[in-house]
Specification:
Rossmann fold, 4-stranded antiparallel beta sheet, globular, 6-stranded mixed beta sheet, alpha/beta, single chain
Amino acid sequence: MNNQVNPSSILREANHLIVPSSFKPVIVRLENISKIYNSGETEVRALANVNLIVEQGEYCAIMGASGSGKSTVMNIIGCLDRPTKGDYYLDKANVAVLGDADLAQIRNRKIGFVFQQFHLLPQLSALENVMLPMIYAGINTAEQRDRAISALKQVGLGNRLNNKPNQLSGGQQQRVAIARAIVNQPVLILADEPTGALDSRTTKEVMDIFSDLNNSGITIVMVTHEPDVARQTQRIVWFRDGEVVHSHLTPADIV
């Protein structure tokens, strides 16, 4: 079935800066973001004057066809890539102008990443994998352990602390990855197709964890191509041809 937006429920939005709807702090603010890649004499415009706001505590899905720009904008939000033009404010700091060292620190302290392929180190236990971001943050070993155990318990893996990735199911590995993402208490969790490698039952379990995290106040932005996954978030942002064509779809708008 083709993924469509319900035309009867919304009007097409021009790509203008969306004003926050409340007095909540703004975590992500993209202002006129463009990304252009050059390949020889060919210029590819991946993003064109994108404006987007995500407030504290929101749970957003980013959707769009292949090549729509959703992965590019995710990389920019995650400070993994730089915009060609425009400003990006993360938790009030304009990260578009920061150097590589500062960006690395922001990725470690302010953003928690969850990917489709879990990116766990196979030689380390679940506990040791979750402790890794705190090592880079300079947190002492005793606190690393305490916080990692707490995070693993939060995702239902308190009895799997010493298991290595090859001793865990795919869903359990993704839970470890989520625990790793939250252990530094980030202002934002970025999830890139986090259920893409999971079956439907495990997808539901993982999405329940994301919902619980959001209910606790954590801001989540998730890239997905799955309508059933997007409908479990609160707000859907739809990309087409490098532009935001809808910034405030509801789960009911995805048919």
